[in-house]
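Researcher: Before we compare anything, I want clean individual predictions. No alignment, no superposition, just each chain on its own. First chain goes here; please echo the sequence and then give the structure tokens.
Model: Echoing the first chain and its structure:
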Amino acid sequence: MMYDTILNQPLIEAARFTLRPPRKSDAGLIELYASDERVARETRSIPHPLPPGATDAFMARIMSENRKEDVWMIDGARDGNREVLGLLNLARMDRDQSELSYWVAPAFWNAGIASEAVRALVEANPLNNRTIFAEVFQDNPASARVLTNAGFEYIGDAESHSVARASNLPTWTYLKRMG
């Protein structure tokens, strides 16, 4: 019998779901959601269409002991929902800083899932960050509201590449000072 790798990441309880480390068994739903153009277009790194093997490579990277990012699944199973509603990623930077990114499956959009998940992760501060950064594409004001609702402050405009859109796009950059 094959067991999932247990990562050294805390479980974070939110009102409607649990934020938990990834499991190999999450790959199917991650691939389903990441294959949706609406999800891929709002991220920097998910290609569309999703090529064969991309999900396996992502899972291997985020479950590696030498990973440079920690990913939490938004798991709604506790309340009778799907095991994966979306995910949050903290990419470690130097000087006790991380960059936050996240996505939620379209079936769960406009239900406050992203806002609740980001708030829970920030409040838990599992990496003991002094600062968390985030950026969103300027054509995604809903994602910007998620950040401002979690106490992030706007610090300026920038530009980032979207693999799915095959172009550089203007972004809004946000910062959250911890404690």
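Researcher: Okay. Second chain, same rules.
Model: Second chain and its structure:
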Amino acid sequence: MMQIESVKAAYRRYAAVYDAVFGPVLQPGRKAVVQALRVRPGERVLEVGVGTGLSLPLYPRDVKITGIDVSREMLEKARRRVARRRLANVEALLEMDAEKMDFADASFDKVVAMYVVSVVERPARLLEELHRVCRPDGEIFLVNHVRSDNRFVAAVEKGLARFSDKLGFRPDFELRDMVSGADQLTELSRINFFWKVMRLRNGVAHRLP
């Protein structure tokens, strides 16, 4: 189980070098999910785990973006990016725990979580929150690593799992263990052998009363 303080510590270490080290490697996933969103003008999008804001310039300028992250250091870099690139469509960048968000129910048309689900302490709780803040019949998009179907690779991932606190994510994570059939999980694309883009429909099981 990932502890939030371990995650904060990991990303505090990464913050200074994140763009150089993780920017190019993870950018194909960011581009793929923003393309998959197919946002319409005026829609509100929440990006959970916005980090240093590398994805923010990729969104169309006619949609409204809110980003949250647990790392204060990452958010400071994101705010500088927004100012430098004059991204007027970014409504807010907030320090917030994704497992207990402050937003009202159904606040966003679409929710994006990139490289986040295998980082949080309680992935099932995170998914509940993503559904809660997304409007009924909205869509949730995930970019994440999931446990390999290859027996050898899965064994390596399991061995690395004991270093999760140092890595800042769980290498042996399996998203389908967290998702019920009603969630309609769809794999949209595979970025590489490590990362996938997935969509969850916010269906009737999560409608507001």
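Researcher: What stands out in the second chain?
Model: The first helix runs from residue 4 to 14. Additionally, Residues 96 and 102 are 8 Å apart (CA to CA).
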